[in-house]
Amino acid sequence: MPNTPPSNTLSLTEVREKNRIAREIIAYLDDALPSLAELWSRVYAALADTLKLIVEINRLSAANRMLREDYANLLAAARATLGAADEGTDPEPLYYLRDEVTAQQQRHRDDT
Fold first, then answer.
1. Is 7 a member of any domain?
2. Residues 40, 34: Cα–Cα separation, whole Å
3. Tell me: the pLDDT tens digits for 9-55?
4. What is the 3-state secondary structure (H, E, C) of 15-46?
5. Smallest Cα–Cα separation from 105: which of 74, 78, 84?
6. What total number of domains does the chain contain?
7. pTM reported for the whole predicted model
8. With contact defined as beta carbons under 8 Å apart, do 78 and 99 qualify?
9. Percent of the chain scoring above 90 in pLDDT
10. How far apart are CA 110 and CA 48, in angstroms?
């Protein structure tokens, strides 16, 4: 079973561009209709939240990719360990699993 993430049809680049255009429109309307400044301020704040959400989505996507890679590597190590144990020719079949767990611990320690 492949370890492929579900496809995402949402383009964050497109969302960011639409957000930029909307902020330009609000800036124009704010200049044209200063009596609605409070309203434009609220809309602009909501648009700013969209940019924060894009940053958070990117962060979570990167974390998800790392977790998927860790899972795939751990699964491969488990399969190698089971294969080595079944063959009975490897004096230490748990080596593959220990090595991967150690590598993941080191990688996560380096990320913090």
1. no
2. 9
3. 789 999 999 999 999 999 999 999 999 999 999 999 999 999 999 99
4. HHHHHHHHHHHHHHHHHHCHHHHHHHHHHHHH
5. 74
6. 1
7. 0.70
8. no
9. 84
10. 32
Contact partners, residue 51, CB within 8 Å, separation at least 6: 16, 19
- Name the residue type at position 41: S
For the stretch 45-83, pLDDT in tens is: 999 999 999 999 999 999 999 999 999 999 999 999 999
Residues 6 or more apart from 21 whose CB is under 8 A from it?
A: none
List all residues 6 or more positions away from 26 whose beta carbon is below 8 Å from its beta carbon.
40, 43, 44, 47
- Give Cα 96 distance to the centre of its chain: 28
- From residue 39, alpha-carbon distances to 24, 74, 110 in Å are 15, 52, 46
Residue at 39 is within a domain: yes
In 1-112, alpha helices (H): 12-32, 37-87, 95-111
The residue segments making up the domain with residue 103 are: 12-111
CB-based contact 19:47 (threshold 8 Å): yes
Is 28 part of a structural domain of the chain? yes
User: Are the C-beta atoms of 80 and 96 separated by less than 8 Å?
Assistant: yes
